[in-house]
Design a protein that fits this description.
single chain, alpha/beta, Rossmann fold, six-stranded parallel beta sheet
């Protein structure tokens, strides 16, 4: 196909003429309204590329006024760690596929009461994007209602988060509770019976994970101690994650009876916890075994390399985009789908078997 250069901007009519198809067929290749063979679509797109034709974004609308190539990303709770990495990776994958994918987010330090989640989602819905990809972490019920309205109006939604919700679309779930179960079993296999857990978030965000921790202790024949559950309490909840680890360490050092092992659900908090204990003469793994979460590069390079659970950001992002594309291309069943993704425990030098001397834990000497 030979196409001569043009001095003026190419039009859809020029593309149709160059590709040898009707105007409606050429238009349908960009709007998605017309069925055609992949060969015909490829011929039209090649003609458009050689003519340097740019479709009018206002004309690129589906029936009902939806933007063909516009996907809104919503991550209401955006930290400086894995939440941000997942949103960033999904955004990049969509952009590489030719979509406009703006991100709507609030910082981690913004309190939930200060965020008008429903107002934001209502605004996005009225802009009529082709689809909404939404982090379901801390999503309010009112937002779910807005998303259901969006789907009823012809939109598509894909959710990703940590728990299976009554969600009006496909979901990719990272099973963080699996890591908790595996951590408890790992500690128990090393002989630890006094096992703690640390959540660098507010207590109201940890209910399902805390129940998993309690249930796993019971299944191992171990006791649950409320004082061995560490949260970002009080003023610490708005602090940086590393500072929360420092607060946890201070509380740990005040305990009359200390646990011999702890799983902290964030590597940065776990590393600062370990550093603060080191300053007080309590060493890992001699006096306490520590497992973190996310398997960040710093965990591998710490003075005591930190055992950690992986957080498969790439797998989550790839699953989200794959499910979205299958929906957009009509290759998915009507029923909503759920994909569950799990991490793996990477063992390093921060955990060790519990040493026992005459029935007493040697690790208790770190107190």
């Amino acid at each position: 196909m030979q196409i001569s250069s043009l001095s003026k901007s190419a039009t859809i009519e020029d593309v149709a003429r160059a590709a040898g198809v009707a105007l409606s067929t050429a238009s349908g290749a960009f709007s998605g309204k017309k069925r055609m063979s992949e060969q015909t679509r490829a011929t039209i797109l090649q003609a458009a590329q050689e003519l340097n034709y740019t479709p009018n974004p206002h004309a690129q609308r589906l029936a009902g006024g939806r933007s063909l190539k516009h996907i809104d990303l919503v991550a209401l709770r955006l930290d400086v760690g894995m939440d941000a990495r997942k949103a960033q990776r999904i955004q990049r994958l969509l952009t590489e596929r030719g979509y406009s994918a703006p991100l709507h987010a609030y910082g981690r330090s913004v309190g939930e009461g200060q965020v008008d989640q429903r107002g934001l989602m209502e605004t996005i819905r009225r802009q009529q994007p082709r689809a909404i990809v939404c982090d379901t972490t801390s999503l309010q019920d009112e937002v779910l209602e807005e998303l259901k309205c969006f789907v009823a109006e012809g939109g598509m939604v894909i959710g990703y988060g940590y728990h299976d919700l009554d969600f009006p679309g496909d979901q990719v779930i990272f099973d963080s509770r699996h890591g908790i179960s595996q951590a408890v079993r790992h500690f128990h296999s090393l002989g630890h019976e006094r096992i703690a857990i640390g959540f660098p978030t507010h207590p109201h965000n940890t209910g399902p994970r805390l129940r998993t921790f309690q249930n796993e202790l019971v299944s191992c024949g171990l006791r649950f101690q409320a004082q061995w559950v560490f949260h970002a309490d009080g003023g610490a909840e708005d602090a940086e994650t590393e500072e929360i680890g420092v607060h946890m360490a201070a509380r740990f050092l005040r305990l009359a009876e200390r646990p011999s092992a702890i799983f902290i659900t964030n590597d940065y908090a776990a590393l600062s916890f370990m550093a603060e204990l080191h300053r007080a003469g309590v060493e890992a793994p001699r006096d306490i075994s520590i497992v973190g979460h996310d398997d960040r590069p710093l965990a591998q390079r710490a003075w005591v390399p930190l055992s950690s659970f992986t957080h498969p950001v790439e797998e989550v992002a790839q699953c989200v985009v794959q499910m979205l594309e299958e929906r957009l291309e009509g290759r998915a069943a009507d029923e909503a789908r759920v994909i569950v993704v799990r991490g793996e425990l990477r063992l390093r030098q921060s955990t060790a078997p519990l040493l026992v001397d005459k029935g007493r834990s040697v690790k208790a000497k770190g107190k």
